[in-house]
Structure formats: C-alpha cells, structure tokens
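User: Predict the structure for this protein chain, please.
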Amino acid sequence: MSERVDPRAARTTRALERAIVELASQGPVARITVAELADRAGVTRATFYNRSASPLGLLIQVLNTDLDRGRELEEGRRAQGDLSVGQRVRMAIGEAADHMARFAGVYEHSLGDPAGHGVYEALVSHFAHYAMSCMDRCTHPALPEANREVIAQFVAHGFAGAIQAWMADDAVTKDDLVDAALACAPAWWT
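Assistant: Here is the predicted structure, written as structure tokens:
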C-alpha cells in the first residue's frame, strides 16, 4: 500500500519553501526571523517548527533538494551510457551553474555573509559527495592513493570557489565557469 501525501501538508511545504527562497533572495538568511518566514508562508510559527529547526536549515534543505535533482540527472545519463565521461562532467558542472542561477539572489546574499556560511557549506557538501561517488566508480589509473575524504574536500572547495568567483563577476559567463572547472578537474575525474 503506497503512502499518500496530504495535499494540505504539501501546500504548506511548498509555501514555506517559496517563502524562504523569496526572503533569502532579499537579504541574508541570518536576518530572517521565524515569525517573518511563517507570516510570508501563511502558516503559524508552530507549523514552521514542525518542519524545520531554523530558516537556515529550511533554506539548505531547499537548495540540497534542487542540487540532488541535478545529481539524479547525471546518474540517469551515466546509466544510459551514450555520453562520454567528459560530456557528463561538463553537463553536471553546467547543471550546478544552472542551480546557482535559479537561486542567484540567495547565493548573492549568503556567500558573502559569515552568518550564512551554512549555504556555502551545503554547496561544498554537494560537491564532496559527488567527488566521493566519482572516486568510488573510478577506474582511471591516475586516481591517487591519498585519503579520499581529503581529496573530495579539496575538489569540492575548488568547485564551490569557482562558482563563487563566477557569481562575483558579471563578465564571467556560464561557459567560462564550465571551461575553467573542467580545466582544473583532476585527470581521473574526466
């Protein structure tokens, strides 16, 4: 028997997600109060707390869900096997850039705000998980024997830093970002 999702609960979830993205696009997430978020979503504070511990926690959940969709697309392309590894990596980096564009206002306010550091850490976590899964599947002879967790963090911070640089400079295009990230990616990655 499949579980049905209560439509009211789904509407409440969507309203909270929409509200946190709107508010975090207007200013730093650290300044968003639960009362303000609940009011914007049209719910009570208790309803908010039944779903999340903090505005930052809810925002990270929304961002991770969107990033995970990109990872699922990449996994689907890998399963089909009709693209080269390099093409899949290029598309995965492009999808991460598309995610950043969809949430540009959120990242613009969060990446430069020390109190919003959790948003940057969520981005790094996404890339670290991606790097670990790449290493787990990797058969390339150039894959180093070093600590994989350290390698994953190094690669993840590099990608997140490249995205931060892209967002800070309007002259840098999405193609510039993808080309630079691919140029710096380890040989075993592509």
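Residues 19 and 97 are 23 Å apart (CA to CA).
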